[in-house]
Structures are given as structure tokens and as C-alpha cells.
Give the backbone structure.
Amino acid sequence: MAIFKIIHITNYQYNWPVKESLNEIRLFPHNFDNQDVLQYQLLITNNPEIGYYKDIYGNKVGNFNHLEEHSEMVIETRMVVRVHHSQEIPLEENTTINDLLIEKKKALAY
């Protein structure tokens, strides 16, 4: 089991002020059999109201407008997730340089 603290920052900087920006975000972690979301926080410049829906694949999507004139906007997500490894990580890799050269020749011939 491993616990990860993840911070993702998207920073928009414009050369001149913009009056409005329409945004769609897909920055939401999933709870799976092998992953638990322990904490999640979404921070957006000026704290806009966000509309949420699920896409055809079940992913959470957010939409928001930033209506005030601005020359920078920051979207930041902070999360803590716990991962339960369901498979062992191989201890060694058996690929040789010769294996890679053979794969390269196959790819070039294709």
C-alpha cells in the first residue's frame, strides 16, 4: 500500500486581459478497488460556480465561466490517494540491447 499526495496546477497567463473564459475540467480522481481518494480539493481563481456532470464513460466533468476581466487564471487540484497494489512489480527487466535492436528493425521494416 502506498499513499500519494498529488498537486496539479494549470496556470493560464494572457498577454492582455480577457473578458470571459469558458472552461471544462477533468481533474477528478477515481475511487477504484485498488485506489481510495482520501482527500480532494479544487481551487480556481475567483472561486467560480462549477456545474458538474458525468460523461459517457462515467468520468466526472466540471464546467465553469470566468466572467471578470483577467490576465491570469489558476486551476489547482490537491489530493491524497491510497493505492493498493494488486500486482507485484517485476524485480528485474530481461530486455537486452539486442532485443531492442530487433524491435527497431521490425518497426522500420513495417
Observations:
- The mean pLDDT is 89.
- Helices lie at 97-109.
- The two ends are 42 Å apart (CA to CA).
- DSSP finds one helix and six strands in the chain.
